[in-house]
């Protein structure tokens, strides 16, 4: 198994965008098949929003600051 990883992993990394895109397409297709179009879209929007907020928090942003930029406070 180690030999397989050493030999093929660098080759697979050249196509990581295609592999990730294919996996996202597979998951989206399965969601659509099992949940229906609108439920799958709603689920994917929630996943993307969660990724966005998580990325901003990882970059040392505060959740409150992010929300204030999206939804300004009513003064």
Average of per-residue pLDDT values: 80
Q: Quote the beta fraction.
A: under 5%
End-to-end distance: 61 Å
Order of helices and strands: HHHH
Give an overview in words.
- The mean pLDDT is 80.
- With 75 residues, the protein is mainly α.
- It has one domain.
- The chain has helices spanning 2-13, 16-35, 37-58, 63-70.
- α2 (16-35) crosses α3.
Task: Give the topology, please.
Layout: H1 2-13, H2 16-35, H3 37-58, H4 63-70
Task: Explain briefly what this protein structure is.
Helices cover 83% and strands 0% of the residues. The chain is built from 4 helices and no strands.
Kindly list the characteristics that best describe this protein.
75 residues, flat, single chain, 0% strand, mainly alpha
